[in-house]
Amino acid sequence: MGFHVILSQIQRYLLGQDVEAQQPWEDERLDEVGVLTFTTEPLEKDVEIAGPLKLSFWAKTDFDQPVTQAIIDQSFAFIQKLLNVSDDQDLLFDLMNRRDVQWIVEVNDVFPDGRAKNITSGWLSAWHRPYDPRDPTRLDPAYNAFDPFYDHADKYPSPIEAGVTYPYVVEIWPTDNMFKQGHRIRVSISASDFPHMLPVLHPSKNTIIIDATDHQARLDCQVVNNIPSDAWKWVSDIVGQDNSSQNQILREFSAVNEYLLTHTDTTTSGDADTESGSDTTAEGTASVSDEGGGGACFIAAVGV
Fold first, then answer.
1. What are the sequence ranges of the domains in the chain?
2. Residues 6+ apart with CB under 8 A from 78
3. 123 and 170 in contact (C-beta within 8 Å)?
4. Rounded to whole angstroms, how far apart are CA atoms 107 and 285?
5. How far apart are CA 297 and CA 270, in angstroms?
6. Contact call for residues 135 and 159 (beta carbons, < 8 A)
7. Neighbours of 159 (CB within 10 A)
8. Rounded to whole angstroms, how far apart are CA atoms 218 and 21?
């Protein structure tokens, strides 16, 4: 629930101590054991990405490992005790007992010393992929990523069949992160994220299909390196907040509160080009483009 992070946040933002690298929960390498990962070469220059991301890929699933009823019963009993779930809440167990795949995608910032810091993540049930109603093995032409009103796949989930190749698009939570020169960008794909998500009890073998023509894999994001540096300002500089505090983070926190409550801003918006990493290879390498455009900006947490 995040309680273990409170101490490190106090040390970092109130005491000015950079203790992030000392916290084991800030290193994703333990989670990446046995997980499919794609990692760029060390970046030749800083790369900043902002906004939502999406990962598109093709995969097929085989449910070739039977599950005994005893294992299912033991799993249900464990989760009932752990989460205090009663027997009459069958919906949760129905979701866990279907032949499904949980696609878990993480975007991580890999430091020169090898530490991998999670930046953002996304989740998708294979049954809730944005499929074409006329052909469940194709992507829905009416689907637009991050459209809050697109609900076809959620209202009418489509079961997957073993051995059939399907397209998937995993929407990843928006972020703003500067990947520094010498760092690497890593994308990891797995099929479990307990306790964030209840597990699927039917084991599966999943194969990612990647080629340059019919089954491309791509990470789409916005690269905003070319936004002029003077377009990014501390909010405290905009609203004229009292700068008596010696702690820049505390000054900014106070200024943001005032800004959200009282300030009226007029800006002109610009178009940001969508950039995407190039096609990945089966060996687990990747690259990212840094030629994206940027729009007008009036707020950024630079220096944090």
1. 1-27, 31-63+99-286
2. none
3. yes
4. 14
5. 9
6. no
7. 10
8. 30
What the block records as the tokens of 227 is: 């936004």
Q: State in words which class domain 31-63+99-286 has.
A: mainly beta
Residue 210 vs residues 55, 100, 166, 201, 231: alpha-carbon distances, Å:
13, 21, 12, 27, 39
Beta-bridge partners for 125 = 102
Find tokens 């906004």 and name the residue: 51
Q: 273 to each of 221, 235, 281, 302, 303, how far by Cα in Å? A: 9, 26, 24, 22, 25
| Cα distance between residue 194 and residue 144, in whole Å | 28
**Distance between first and last Cα of the chain:** 23
- 98 burial (CB, 10 Å; 0-12 / 13-18 / 19+) is middle
| Element (DSSP H or E) covering residue 113 | none
Query: Is the Cβ–Cβ distance between 106 and 201 less than 8 Å?
Result: no
Which ranges constitute the DSSP H helices of the chain? 3-9, 69-83, 90-96, 152-155, 235-239, 248-262
pLDDT tens column, 238-281: 666 566 666 777 777 777 777 777 766 554 444 434 344 434 33
The SS3 assignment for 172 reads strand
CA 292 to centroid of chain Cα atoms: 20
Mind listing the pLDDT tens digit for each residue in 116-170? 999 999 999 999 999 999 999 999 999 999 998 999 999 999 999 999 999 999 9
Half-sphere exposure of 115 (CA within 13 A, CB side): 12
Amino acid at 23: Q
95, 149 in Cβ contact below 8 A? no
DSSP H or E stretch at residue 123: strand 116-125
pTM comes to 0.70
